[in-house]
């Protein structure tokens, strides 16, 4: 029937509306869970129900940046994590010198890492995280948007090593070739040592299996970083007494750790290269 004077819809109008609903349903069903999650994450922590916390926890299991955290920590995060959206390009999340208050994980979009005097030194993509180091240390941030050079190193160790990226990684290579500009070798060595000895103040006898595996992963990634460092800038590393001492100290520790057999092989190869370099350099000096 046609529409009446009172404005009732005609049969054609109803049919078209039903068609529109059928067309929109798949999109709504797809967006529904995402919209529900965002709604929960916008709630204050104390207003989230147990069911909502469980839903958030299930989503956290799929975020790579949190994969190394224990189950209990992820459940704690479910109650405090929030959703933040920035629709406009160029929005500054935080500035150099700001106190660390948040740990960010990129779900969509990208963030430029800007260091004063250096410009944009890296671009973080979906799945990357930043700000954790400054948050833990309650330290001021040294870069705009993403944090300190130390955070860049942490990002590399956590996301670019251990087979997570192919053998050719421009981000890692750029850092190794240019770190001396914004992170002198003594500072780099201190940060690597801190990462390697992340378990220094922990009683491993009472640590969970997840925590123990995390500590072993930290050690493996530092060894892999050393391997890549030596491969890319061998002479500069082997000519630096601090770097050589650090490599030798790590080698001693790795060889005493039964769970790091593959890393022991890697560090042994690095020491062999070091010995050959030192012998070759000594012969060259003797010749002259």
From TrEMBL:
Gene3D superfamilies: 1.10.8.1240, Jelly Rolls, Son of sevenless (SoS) protein Chain: S domain 1. The keyword Signal does not apply. The keyword Zinc-finger does not apply. Residues 140-275 form the N-terminal Ras-GEF domain. It comes from the Eukaryota. Residues 65-141 form the Cyclic nucleotide-binding domain. This is Rap guanine nucleotide exchange factor 4.
